[in-house]
Specification:
With about 200 residues, the chain is of the alpha+beta class. It has six helices and nine strands; from the N terminus they run αββααβαββββαββα. The strands form two sheets. It has a five-stranded antiparallel sheet. The longest helix is centred in the N-terminal third of the chain and has 20 residues. The N and C termini lie close together (about 10 Å).
Length: about 200
Amino acid sequence: MERTISLKDIAPLAVYRRSREDYVKRMIDYKRARRIKLSPYISILFENRDTVLFQIRELAHSEDLTDPEELAVYIEIYSGMLPGDHELSATLFIEMDEQQKLQDLLVALKGIEHHLTLQVGDVIVPAVFEEVHDDREFTTSVHYLKFPLGQAALDAFAAIGNGDTISMLLSLDHPNLQASVSLARDTIDSLVNDL
């Protein structure tokens, strides 16, 4: 699977806009299996080349970006969200409509970066967050993270790819919020395809 994004992947805006409606519908369907609702206010989207490329294309569309140098800057920024070899990549969203309640929740969830795991069969993989916010009294509402997969986790993914039934559990064990979600089969299959 191709793991990088370059300017050649960004169609000219006029070309993109002609097929955008169908593309957006396909991507919404595709991302449905990759977005996990961990709690009423927390969701996690597993990222890959397709989801990141979609974000870049939509950014170019919404901002009318046509300058190759500007596009190259955004490609470089967003490429940090791409999973590397032997890892899964995700974006964690903390969302709430009421601003004051959101601010209170961000204070309550300080340190969330140390409490998220993905369990693959019997193997527990701690999330590694791009940024750790231990130096302030709140966390942010968007986090970029990776799940680096050791050999035991990779073996479990390979077994799933070979037809074995192995469960996956996404868990948050924060002092102020505990939540766990078993991943559905379509989510597991989508993640297996990433590897």
